[in-house]
Every structure is written in structure tokens, then in C-alpha cells.
């Protein structure tokens, strides 16, 4: 059961992941949030309170800049590696890295993006291996992962875990608990032929404990789509298909198997996201209880990443264009490190010029939010991803939203939990 503190953190995570967190709690501007500007550690990207997204935003920033051929400062890398706990996981943030971690509050989303950042950086195999072992140790019996260990799994956290395993060179099909592997866990959140036609292929955030059907969730689908397509950060797939993503083939009336076959998962969610992007005017939309519908920047960014990974950059193009046009709002004028890093990852994946993305030099903008880099050669040129660390050997692998919103989102109303987070989210 979630405590009041964890419910608050979950609600905040939802706000961060969807790009709706408002000042003062999370804005990357001096003197905001629960920590003053002076409390932000040296080496960390962004100037806002790092309590809930420090590892998330640092990991995204390091991944995006490394992919852009920027060599980060040693202090930036050391800060991230210094946040890792003895058992291999990462918390959202710990102010005193010398203190032992509370295992119950370790953050699977932070751990997932940290592993991917260290793979992209190279030279951190021990830390990557420990991260994979942490995922093995904290997998739920249904094959999924929760935001914090010991809680029910969710699509966002499970998708991010799959991304991390792929980045580390570990086949997610070999990471299993009680006979259910990581892909099985991810599949448990995807809607099949029994769902309404317009929701098929989408992902729910969590399954309902009482079996009540849940609706597809934009952010869940966006983040899970990268994993369903077999991808990780940074996205560097250059495969391209001429056809649109293939929707699930369902018998008339929706009868048939409820589970989506693994082979069809990426195409099915790609078709769902393509339809939702078209319906939303090139972006996905966030709807929270008591609030007017609003653009969901994080979900749109992850949807674009998933579509590119699935070989459908043409279906992602409209969303990428929209993010280029509207991204300044999400990045708060370039002060939000996680959002800026996510936009940079999208530009790189879509093979757009990151030095002129919507009139903004994203590499320069993100670099300015952290310590001076060691080198910036070729920083503005799109770059390919680093190779996976190794093959699996079989052994590795304002303030925040009120609790009422967190509860409503968490139960069938569509809790939109992953980093940053501020994604970028920690897109």
C-alpha cells in the first residue's frame, strides 16, 4: 500500500512525466522548489529542486549530449555514478550520497535512464552490470516493474526497464520472475482485440486490481512504445518502412484473444499513437480530473521516439514538427534540463538539426544548464548511438499535484506516472 508520502511522490511523478508540473516545485529556475539554488549540487544539470528528478534529468542530459558528440564534465558523470546505491539501483535523488539508500524508495525509472546514460558514455560496465542485477532482483512476479519496489507494476516503469536491459545488451526475454519475463510484463498493459477499436494497441498505465477495464493512456503508450519496438535511448534506428504502422487484426465485433502477440506489439502501439496524434493535431493530449485538456509534451515526445524506433519516422514527423514549434513552452524557455534533453533526443532520432530545432540550438541550450563540458567537437551534428555494453551472460541484466489528483490518476482514471518525472522524462 502506498503511504501518503509515496502517493504525493507518485502524483508529482505524473506531473513531471506529463510536463505539467508547475512552479515553484519543479521549475529549473534559481530559488524555486524546496531547495534553494545554492542547494543544487555541483555537476548537476538544471537549477531547480532535484528531489524528485535529479537522476532522471542528469541521465537524459548526459545521454543527449554524449550522442551529440559533447564530452561532459567529469563532475557531471561523477555526480550520476555517485548516486547509485550499493545494490545497483538509483533513487530519484539523495542529497547525502554517503548515506545508505532506502531500498523501498529506490526509483526504477531513475535506474533505467541512468543505466542507458552510462552505456552511452561508455567505460562504466560495473555500474551497468549492477543496474541490470537490480532489475533482476526487483522484478514483480508478473514480469513487470513498479516505480518503487514492492508496488504493483505499471507500463511506464516496465517499458523503461526494458529499454535499460536492451541498452545493456541483456535480452529482456531472459529476465524473468515466476516464469514471466520482461516482455510478458509489458504485454500485460497493452490493450488487444477485446478493447474498443480506437484503444487497441494502446497501453494502460496500470491494470485494475478488480479487473475493471482501464482506458489506454497516452503517456503509457508513448513510453511503452519504445520498448515494444525493441528500442532504448538514444534512438538511432535508421530503418524506414513506407507503410503506416499495422493495426491489430481483430475479428469483427472485437472477439478473440485479449493479449497482443509480442511480434505485433510495436506495430499495434504505433498504429494507436499515429491515430491519436492525428486526432490531437500532431500531439497527444493530457486530460486530468477537473482540468481542461492540455497538450502532453512528454507523451508526444516519447510517441515520436517510439515511432522512429519502429521504422515509421514519417508518422512521427508531424509530432516532431509540433515539438519544434511548441517546445519552448515545455522547456520553460530553455531552463528545464529534462525537457530540453528530451527534445534533443527527439531531434537526434528524427535526424533533424539540433542546432536549429524550432529556431533553437538545443545542444547549446542544454550545455548551458550544466558544468562546462570537456569537449564540444561536432556538437551540433546528429550522431548515432553507442553500441550495447555487452551481450547477456545469463547473470546480468504551485508545489506538486494534490493527493486527490494522484489517487484519481492511479485508479483507472489513468495515473500517468516514469523522470523527469520530468521525464522528458529523468523525457
Architecture overview:
The protein has 427 residues and is mainly α. The protein has a single domain, classed as Alpha/alpha barrel (Glycosyltransferase). It has helices at 4-18, 54-67, 74-82, 108-121, 125-137, 155-167, 182-187, 218-228, 262-279, 297-309, 313-330, 337-349, 362-367, 403-413, and strands at residues 176-177, 180-181, 285-286, 294-295. Mean pLDDT is 83; it is low at 1-38 and 379-427.
Helical element count?
14
CATH architecture: Alpha/alpha barrel
Main sheet strand line-up: 1-2
Q: How much is the radius of gyration in Å?
A: 19 Å
Q: How many domains, as an integer?
A: 1
The largest β sheet comes out as: 2 strands, antiparallel
Q: In percent terms, what proportion of residues is strand? A: under 5%
Q: H/E element string?
A: HHHHHHEEHHHEEHHHHH
Q: Give the class from helix and strand content and strand pairing.
A: mainly alpha
State the CATH topology. Answer: Glycosyltransferase
Task: Provide mean pLDDT, rounded.
Answer: 83
Distance between the termini: 27 Å
* Strands, total number: 4
The CATH class assignment is Mainly Alpha
Estimate percent helicity: 40-55%
Overall geometry comes to globular
Poorly predicted ranges: 1-38, 379-427
Task: Summarize, please.
The protein has helices at 4-18, 54-67, 74-82, 108-121, 125-137, 155-167, 182-187, 218-228, 262-279, 297-309, 313-330, 337-349, 362-367, 403-413; strands at residues 176-177, 180-181, 285-286, 294-295. It is mostly helical.
Amino acid at each position: 500500500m502506498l503511504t501518503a508520502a509515496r502517493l504525493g511522490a507518485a502524483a508529482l511523478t505524473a506531473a513531471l512525466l506529463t510536463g505539467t508540473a508547475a512552479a515553484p516545485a519543479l521549475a529549473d529556475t534559481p530559488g524555486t522548489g524546496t531547495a534553494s539554488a545554492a542547494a543544487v549540487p555541483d555537476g548537476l544539470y538544471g537549477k531547480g529542486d532535484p528531489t524528485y528528478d535529479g537522476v532522471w534529468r542528469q541521465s537524459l542530459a548526459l545521454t543527449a549530449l554524449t550522442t551529440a558528440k559533447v564530452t561532459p564534465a567529469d563532475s557531471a558523470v561523477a555526480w550520476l555514478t555517485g548516486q547509485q546505491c550499493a545494490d545497483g539501483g538509483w533513487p530519484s535523488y539523495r542529497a547525502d550520497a554517503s548515506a545508505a539508500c532506502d531500498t523501498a524508495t529506490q526509483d526504477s525509472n531513475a535506474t533505467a535512464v541512468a543505466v542507458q546514460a552510462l552505456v552511452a558514455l561508455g567505460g562504466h560496465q560495473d555500474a551497468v552490470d549492477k543496474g541490470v542485477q537490480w532489475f533482476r532482483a526487483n522484478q514483480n512476479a508478473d514480469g513487470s516493474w513498479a516505480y518503487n519496489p514492492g508496488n504493483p507494476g505499471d507500463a511506464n516503469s516496465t517499458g523503461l526497464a526494458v529499454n535499460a536491459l536492451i541498452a545493456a545488451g541483456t535480452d529482456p526475454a531472459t529476465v524473468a520472475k515466476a516464469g514471466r519475463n520482461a516482455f510478458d510484463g509489458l504485454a500485460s498493459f497493452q490493450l488487444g482485440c477485446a478493447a474498443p477499436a480506437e484503444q487497441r494497441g494502446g497501453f494502460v498505465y496500470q491494470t485494475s486490481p478488480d479487473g475493471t477495464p482501464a482506458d489506454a493512456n497516452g503517456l503509457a503508450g508513448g513510453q511503452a512504445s519504445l520498448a515494444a519496438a525493441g528500442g532504448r535511448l538514444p534512438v538511432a534506428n535508421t530503418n524506414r518502412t513506407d507503410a503506416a504502422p499495422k493495426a491489430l487484426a481483430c475479428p469483427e465485433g472485437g472477439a478473440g484473444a485479449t493479449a497482443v502477440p509480442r511480434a505485433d506489439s510495436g506495430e499495434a502501439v504505433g498504429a494507436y499513437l499515429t491515430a491519436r496524434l492525428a486526432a490531437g493535431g500532431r500531439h497527444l493530449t493530457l486530460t486530468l480530473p477537473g482540468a481542461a485538456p492540455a497538450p502532453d509534451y512528454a507523451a508526444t515526445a516519447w510517441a515520436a521516439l517510439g515511432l522512429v524506433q519502429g521504422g515509421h519516422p514519417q508518422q512521427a514527423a508531424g509530432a516532431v514538427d509540433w515539438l519544434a514549434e511548441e517546445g519552448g513552452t515545455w522547456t520553460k524557455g530553455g531552463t528545464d534540463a529534462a525537457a530540453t534533453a528530451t527534445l534533443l533526443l527527439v531531434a537526434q532520432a528524427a535526424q533533424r538539426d539540433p542546432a536549429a530545432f524550432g529556431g533553437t540550438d538545443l545542444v547549446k541550450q542544454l550545455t548551458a544548464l550544466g558544468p562546462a563540458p570537456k569537449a564540444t567537437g561536432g556538437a551540433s551534428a546528429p550522431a548515432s548511438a553507442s553500441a550495447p555494453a555487452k551481450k547477456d551472460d545469463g547473470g546480468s541484466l504551485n508545489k506538486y499535484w494534490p493527493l486527490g489528483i494522484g489517487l484519481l490518476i492511479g485508479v483507472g482514471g489513468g495515473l500517468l506516472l516514469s523522470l523527469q518525472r520530468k521525464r522528458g522524462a529523468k523525457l
